Amino acid sequence: MKKDVIISISGQQFFEDIYEDVVEFVTDGRYYKKDGKYYITYKESELTGLTGSTTMKIEPHKVTLMHSKPHASELIFEKGRRHVSLYETGQGALTIAVSTESIENGLVDSGGSLKVQYAIEVNHAIAGINSFTVSVKEAKNSGLKLKN
Prior knowledge:
The protein is an all-beta fold. 3% of the residues lie in helices and 70% in strands. The protein has one helix spanning 139-142, and strands spanning 2-15, 19-34, 37-43, 53-59, 62-67, 73-78, 82-89, 92-105, 112-122, 125-138.
């Protein structure tokens, strides 16, 4: 089961109730299931500030977000756990720690949605509470045409 899909991603960032920042984008990608895990892959856009591609591996209680080179990195979101990783950017590497508060996994073979809420630390400083929501729809049912 590999499908061409339309992926909608919405990310929110909160910091001490002072501000809220929302980033949203829609892109095409691939969606498949392997060994009982769902995978979502897509190319990054200028909106994200990254190049290359991203793969999300979704397990029942864990989400792994992997960016390819040139900004290779991996973030692990697992409810009730704190994961620390090195996150590559165009300006250098950062130490990122995420403590996942909740994962709402509504993905099925035909698509669905995923929401992750987490606290984030950047270089050992608290950077706020973030969340992202990913919606996956089959391209043939979306009304949009994919680029070849």
